[in-house]
Amino acid sequence: MAQLDPSQKLKKSLRLFDVYAIATGAMFSAEFFMLPGIALSYTGPSVVLAYLISGILVLPAMFSQAELSTAMPKAGGTYYFIDRSLGPMAGTVGGIGTWLSLIFKSAFALIGIGAYLVLFVDLPIKPVAIALTVAFTLLNIVGAKETGGLQRFLVTMLIGILTLFILQGLIELLPAEEGAEMEGRLRPFLPFGIEGLLSAIGLVFAAYTGLTKVASVAEEVENPDRNIPLAMILSLGTAIFVYVVGVFLLVVYLDPVALQNDYTPFATVADKLMGWIPTPDALPHSTGVLLIVIAALAAFASTGNAGILSASRYPLAMARDRLITRHFDKVSRFNTPTRSILVTGCAMIVFILTLDVEGVAKLASAFNLLVFGLINLAVIVMRESHIPSYAPGFRSPLYPWMQIVGILTSVVLIIEIGTLSIVFTLGIVAASIGWYFYYARNNADVEREGAIYHLFERLGRHRYEGLETELHSILEEKGITDTSDFEKLIARASVIHLDESAPYEEVVREAARILARRTSVPEDKIVREFLGGSQFSGTAVTHGTALPYYLVSGLEEEEMVIVHCLSGICIEFEEGLEREQTEPVYALFFLLSPRENQS
Questions:
Q1: Does residue 127 have a cis bond before it (omega within 30 degrees)?
Q2: Residue 394: CB partners within 8 Å, gap ≥ 6?
Q3: CA distances from 552 to 224, 512, 534, 536, 594 (A)
Q4: Angle (nearest 5°) at CA 352 between 61 and 292
Q5: For the chain, which has fewer Cβ within 10 Å, the N-terminal or C-terminal residue?
Q6: Under 8 Å CB-to-CB from 7, ≥6 apart: which residues?
Q7: Among 101-105, 277-281, 372-376, 595-599, where is mean pLDDT lowest?
Q8: Whether residue 148 has pLDDT greater than 60
Q9: For residues 225 and 79, is the Cβ–Cβ distance under 8 A?
Q10: pLDDT grade for 234, boundaries at 50, 70 and 90
């Protein structure tokens, strides 16, 4: 893929809390405020366990998304990762399918506003959903920073009210007589056995799928190596706690039959728990109910807003790669993909008007599971392809077992969701492949192949050389290999000539000694980062050269030491549970770069 013109790049304006707000807001929707009663009918009181297990099962996809996002922080997230690892045909499937499923989920969230809003105001549901879609579309056009500001406000309000609800609910359980009475509602805990529990897990798993939406806006995140994985971890921790404790309170405070038939269960419980808050006579329900309605509206609105923000980056990324028309790769004067945002907003309005969005949204969760499986597979392909420029700032723990568990989990849960969901998923796959062969297959601009061919090369097949160049350009965008004054950096760099090979550790120590003398960074810390590495350091190796880099906070300007060895130096690195060695490298560029100046 050709380098993007600077005017067509998206502005990096999203910080840690923005990323946290996008991920958290995308998770709290109908699956939390409306679904617990339906899930209870599958597995009884163990619905609490279903929410907990679902949160744990999303860990492989979260870690894989975090690794890929820090290695390739590009718009389109899931599409981009699948395309670059498995090839453009798989990328077309992931891009179109994920775009549709995000639209379905977002449209469902905006329609879901009606279930809680009707408690206080009798308004037509679909016109309200359309009006909100238009408002969020316009806000997204203005800029990701402004969109992130609204998201921060909505999520802060949501978490604040839910925290008050949970604390009040737990305090009410403290008296022994109250706790004993409510404990009876947890028995029998697993009335329908393991099969019922698995069905409930498959149903509520969709509650956590919004977590990985942040991958689609990775290109707009400041310091993605830190902010993306940290925000994901914090967001998932928040969601698991609120989901599990919140649903537990519903189970112990509501009669099981009443809960199964209640589409606003949190409002019902809040009416019991928050009676101590004064209620104006003009309100048809208590102030406690009003607070929960506000939280629900904030949750549904944040899901719809984050959905447009995330989904609109898929047409942008696919247009950049010429898998769809180039009209969608334009960035407006607001540094946003206006045409992609508009087509996403219009598609949401069409679905709100014409489809049973709730039914389609549940079907779309099966496709999300398929994508999660492909994302876990993508990490395995990228790691095993041994592409030198694949240098993620965050690496998934427990590789490859984490990814294998994630793939198997996706398969099992898709089966548990049901035949209709499988048929729907296969339909999206077939339609996407059809589009690929109709439009993109014969497109002269689509010449790339995925990293899977690098893996095939290890088995004696060909590979796509352009991918290494593209990944190397991503390193440049992250501030690792490019400066505005590159010639001056080289001119002032110290140069070490070696006639004979030397151990890599000795070379590192000599380079660190020089760099420490020219900066305020301690020599032993530089050695440690170059040899061991962290999320802010690493080594890119390609074509007989190596670039050990270390991003340093507070460093005023970049410093470099160049080592030239006629005999070549081999660098050891960890791959999975084993240590492997690179081919000999003849030039090493030891680089210290300011962490704050990543662009």
A1: no
A2: 66, 67, 70, 225, 228, 229, 535
A3: 15, 13, 11, 8, 5
A4: 70
A5: C
A6: 331
A7: 595-599
A8: yes
A9: no
A10: very high
Place of tokens 């192949």: 449
Query: Is the model's pLDDT at 291 over the cut of 80?
Result: yes
Q: What are phi and psi of 553, to 5 degrees?
A: -70, 135
Q: Is the pLDDT of residue 462 over 60?
A: no
CA distance 187 to 599: 56
- Dihedral of CA atoms 162, 165, 166, 172 in degrees, nearest 10, equals 180
The whole-number pLDDT of residue 147 equals 63
Q: Can you give the pLDDT at residue 576? A: 46
**Closest to 77 in 3D by CA, of 453, 87, 67, 384:** 67
For residues 35 and 550, give the distance between their C-alpha atoms in angstroms, rounded to a whole number: 47
Please tell me the predicted confidence (pLDDT) of residue 6: 44
Number of Cα atoms under 13 Å in the Cβ half of residue 23: 33
Specify the pLDDT at position 405. 93
Looking up tokens 């679909």 gives: 126
Question: 277-281, 356-360, 395-399: which has the minimum mean pLDDT?
Answer: 356-360
Which distant-in-sequence residues (6+ apart) come within 8 Å of 147 by Cβ?
136, 139, 140, 305, 309
Cα atoms in the 13 Å half-sphere on the side-chain side of 266: 32
Question: Quick one: residue 596, left, alpha or beta (phi over 0 = left, psi -120 to 50 = alpha)?
Answer: alpha
pTM attached to this predicted model: 0.70
| Distance between CA atoms of residues 536 and 478, nearest Å | 11
Instruction: Report the residue count for the chain.
Output: 599
Q: Percentage of the chain surpassing pLDDT 70?
A: 79
Give 22's contacts (C-beta < 8 A, 6+ positions apart): 14, 148, 151, 213, 214, 217, 306, 309, 310
Per-residue model confidence as pLDDT tens digits over 560-573: 888 888 778 877 66
Confidence class for position 450, pLDDT limits 50, 70, 90: low
- Cα three-residue angle 250-256-258, rounded to 5 degrees: 85
How far is CA 83 from each of CA 235, 444, 557, rounded to the nearest angstrom?
27, 17, 36
Q: Measured between alpha carbons, how far is 321 from 325 in angstroms, rounded to an integer?
A: 9
Tokens (6 digits) for 564: 């030239």
For the segment 532-552, the average pLDDT, to the nearest whole number, is 72
Answer whether 463's CB lies under 8 Å from 408's CB.
no
Give, as one character, the DSSP assignment of residue 149.
H
Give CA 144 to chain center in angstroms: 16
Question: Environment class of residue 386 by beta-carbon count within 10 Å: exposed (0-12), middle (13-18) or buried (19+)?
Answer: middle
DSSP collapsed to 3 states, 407-418: HHHHHHHHHHHC
